[in-house]
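Query structure, 300 C-alpha cells:
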C-alpha cells in the first residue's frame, strides 16, 4: 500500500507502514517560455498604455477639429507643434540673459522647488512628530496650523519679498510655506495612529528616544508621512509656476508669463504640457520612494 503526499515544492512517497523512509522528488519549476513572457508583457503594456493613448488621440482630434475653423482663438495641435518646433528640438539653447531654452527654464524652477520642498520636508516632519507626540503641542500649535494652511500660497509672496528683498529666496519661501502644511498634518496623524502595542514593545525593550523614533515611529507613520509628501510636492510645483510669473527671472512660470506678453499662445500651450509632465514625474518619484520605504503599504 502506498500513499502520496503533495506539498508545495516536493512530492513525498510513503511506502508501507510504518514509514521508515521516504523519497523526496522535487518538482521542477515550470519555466515561462519566451513567447509566453512576450505575450504577457504585451498584454500588460496594452492594458496600461492603450486606454490613455486612445483617449489622448481622441482629445487631440477634437481639439484639432474645433480650433482649425475660421475665427478660432486658440491654435490647433498641428500649429502648436509647428510654431514651437525650435523650442522642442532645442530645449537647452542659451542666447544670454533670460533668453534660454525651455529645458533651462524648467531646470531653474526645479531647483527652487527642490530647495523649498527640502526645507518643508525637514520642518514638516519635525513639527508633525512634535504635534503627534505631545498633547500640549497639539493644543498649542494645531489651531495655528489650521488657520495658516488656508492662506493661499501667493498671498505669502508680498510678505516674503518685503522680508528678503529678492525674488529667489522669496520664491523658495513660497514653496516652503505651501508644502509644509500637508507634511505636518499627515505626519502628526501618522504618529498619533501608532498602535499602543508598538509603544509597549518599545518600553519593554527600553528603547531610547532616538531608537523609538527611528525603529518604531518612522516605519509606523511612514504611509501617512509619504501621503503628505506627495501632496506637498504637487502643491510646490503648482505654487512655483504662479510665483515665478510675479518674481520674473528664469523659470517656467516666467516663461509662460513672458509668452503671454508676447502673444505666443503656442509657447504657452507647450509650456503647460511640460508643466504637467514634470508634475506627474515628481509625484511618481515621491510615490515610488514611499512604496519602496514602506514596502508597498503607502498609497501609489
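Result returned for the query:
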Amino acid at each position: 500500500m502506498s500513499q502520496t503526499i503533495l506539498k508545495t515544492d516536493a512530492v513525498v512517497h510513503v511506502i508501507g507502514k510504518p514509514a521508515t523512509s521516504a523519497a523526496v522528488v522535487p518538482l521542477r519549476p515550470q519555466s515561462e517560455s519566451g513567447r509566453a513572457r512576450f505575450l504577457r508583457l504585451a498584454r500588460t503594456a496594452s492594458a496600461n498604455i492603450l486606454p490613455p493613448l486612445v483617449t489622448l488621440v481622441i482629445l487631440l482630434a477634437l481639439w484639432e477639429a474645433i480650433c482649425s475653423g475660421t475665427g478660432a482663438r486658440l491654435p490647433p495641435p498641428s500649429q502648436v507643434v509647428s510654431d514651437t518646433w525650435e523650442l522642442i528640438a532645442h530645449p537647452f539653447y542659451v542666447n544670454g540673459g533670460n533668453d534660454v531654452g525651455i529645458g533651462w527654464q524648467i531646470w531653474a524652477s526645479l531647483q527652487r522647488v527642490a530647495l523649498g520642498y527640502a526645507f518643508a520636508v525637514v520642518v514638516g516632519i519635525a513639527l508633525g512628530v512634535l504635534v503627534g507626540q505631545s498633547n500640549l503641542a497639539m493644543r498649542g500649535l494645531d489651531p495655528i496650523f489650521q488657520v495658516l494652511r488656508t492662506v493661499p500660497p501667493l498671498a505669502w509672496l508680498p510678505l516674503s519679498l518685503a522680508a528678503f528683498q529678492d525674488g529667489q529666496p522669496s520664491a523658495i519661501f513660497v514653496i516652503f510655506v505651501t508644502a509644509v502644511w500637508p507634511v505636518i498634518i499627515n505626519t502628526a496623524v501618522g504618529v498619533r495612529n501608532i498602535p499602543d502595542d508598538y509603544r509597549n514593545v518599545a518600553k519593554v525593550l527600553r528603547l531610547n528616544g532616538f531608537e523609538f523614533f527611528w525603529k518604531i515611529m518612522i516605519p509606523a507613520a511612514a504611509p501617512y508621512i509619504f501621503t503628505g509628501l506627495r501632496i506637498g510636492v504637487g502643491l510646490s510645483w503648482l505654487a512655483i509656476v504662479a510665483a515665478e510669473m510675479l518674481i520674473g527671472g528664469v523659470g517656467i512660470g516666467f516663461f509662460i508669463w513672458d509668452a503671454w506678453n508676447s502673444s505666443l499662445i503656442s509657447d504657452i500651450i507647450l509650456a503647460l504640457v511640460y508643466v504637467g509632465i514634470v508634475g506627474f514625474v515628481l509625484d511618481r518619484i515621491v510615490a515610488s520612494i514611499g512604496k519602496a520605504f514602506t514596502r508597498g503599504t503607502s498609497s501609489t
